[in-house]
């Protein structure tokens, strides 16, 4: 009799745990938009981890601004399409096919100073992942008429799987 009671309690407890666990897993599902945002962030974080120079982007002491293609388009629209060559010099970089979504960061690292060629100590980093998984960092400085590309580095990255199907 005692053994039957123990088996009955174990079966009931197991059923309860299965039901509770499946409802908990369902509660953790994300909308497609949230899933895509997480995917885009995961991809760009992988790119950032490929280049030690990009640690400046995660330094809480530094003022870092992040821009998407949509941000640049809004800035262009807010000026009636006359935002100038600075936006144009970055905007065209967003054209193409990428894994995830490219981002443009502007920072002011401690080791960068203004000089004769670049009056500003700001540095732009255009980051993206190629469809083959290659991570790319395009380093830029604000020149006389737009952002100048001063360096471009590529490094083998991981291919982040897209898991946002409905």
Describe the structure.
- This protein has a 5-stranded antiparallel sheet with strand order 1-2-3-4-5.
- The relative contact order is 0.15.
- Strand 3 and strand 4 form a beta hairpin.
- The protein has 2 domains: 29 residues; 126 residues, no CATH class.
- By secondary structure, it is an alpha+beta fold.
- The longest helix is centred in the N-terminal third of the chain and has 26 residues.
Brief summary:
The chain has 166 residues and is α+β, with helices and mostly antiparallel strands.
Helix-strand blueprint:
Layout: H1 2-27, H2 32-50, E1 65-67, H3 69-78, H4 85-91, E2 99-107, E3 123-129, E4 134-142, E5 147-156
Antiparallel strand pairs: 1-2, 2-3, 3-4, 4-5
List its salient traits.
single chain; 166 residues; alpha+beta; five-stranded antiparallel β-sheet; 5 strands; 37% helix; 23% strand; globular
Strand content: 15-25%
Structural class: alpha+beta
Instruction: Round the Cα radius of gyration to an integer and report it.
Output: 24 Å
How confident overall, as mean pLDDT? Answer: 82
The overall number of domains is 2
Q: Write down how many β-strands occur, each being a DSSP E stretch of 2 or more residues.
A: 5
